[in-house]
Amino acid sequence: MQGIIDSHFHIWDPATQPLSWLDDTDGSITRRYDMDCLRRAYDAYCKRHPDNEILFMGGVYVEVDTDDTALEDRLLSENHDPLLLATSMRSTVGPAMRVPLYAHGVREPLHTASSPRGRCLQEDFIRGLRLMAEKDVPFDACVRPNELSNLAQACERVPEATVIINHVGNITDRRTLDDSADIIYRLGSMPNVYVKISGYPTDDEAFVSNLLNLVQSAFSSKRLLYASNWPVISMYSNLDSHLSILLDRFAGDDDFFINNARNAYHITERKTP
Fold it and tell me: How far apart are CA 7 and CA 262, in angstroms?
């Protein structure tokens, strides 16, 4: 049986949280998602794939680009579900950034329209990243593929920072994969840079195989993290095909499915009230 820690999932409730980015989607994920929904998603996988025995151990909540981060901070502070192992919360990276004390990591979305190009090279960002490194707080880097070189420069300026690249740099097609290969190797050579294996469509098997070959070649096996991007994954793929592909590729690899997430986010046994 393969234990699994999902290093990247989201939960939200549009009835109580302002999530304006959902207005630009097809509406299929504009509904409430909570920890029970996530639990049921993995339970359903087990029922559909009895030969792929898994044990869902919990995961890492990643901020949801809400318009009210203070509300998000409060909602997560009040969520004591035992499967919620860690959180990566929203903040504007800089020397005066505010982060909830319970947070295991920080994410400032760098891939959205509101984020200026070159944001991760701005001096206040670099100073904030350096401060996070001093506090041993990882940064979740969700960037546009054509700005991966900017991210590499930021990582080189603060090599002591733990940076976790979200969704394999948002590489989702063959042309972008070809264009990004060199920079993926550059990022993979940095000992404090991790990458989450998620975010790509799974219908093109050759593309997926080439993408996974690239990251496995570029990154140490100690710095690859299993992630689902649930429930956003339903916009471009599905949990069944994504997880099945990765179970086949990383069969028996507890570092990929469990330990690397624990190490990157400093996950320990959670004490719940």
Answer: 9
CA distances from 233 to 8, 135, 142, 176 (A): 11, 32, 15, 19
Residue type, 106: V
- Dihedral angle of Cα 113, 135, 169, 108, to the nearest 10 degrees: -10
Distance, CA of 150 to CA of 148 (rounded, Å): 5
How far is residue 30's CA from residue 15's CA, in Å, rounded to a whole number? 9
Q: How far apart are CA 80 and CA 78, in angstroms?
A: 6
Confidence of residue 271 (pLDDT cuts 50, 70, 90): very low
Q: What is the amino acid identity at position 207?
A: F
- Would you call 198 exposed, middle or buried from its count of C-beta atoms within 10 A (0-12, 13-18, 19+)? buried
Quickly state the pLDDT bin for 269 (edges 50, 70, 90): low
Residue 121, classified by CB atoms within 10 Å of its CB into exposed (0-12), middle (13-18) or buried (19+), is middle
CA proximity to 229, closest of 144, 167, 184, 139: 167
The predicted model scores a pTM of 0.96
Cβ 183 vs Cβ 150: under 8 Å: no
Q: Within the chain, what is the greatest distance between any pair of CA atoms?
A: 51
For the chain, what's the residue count?
273
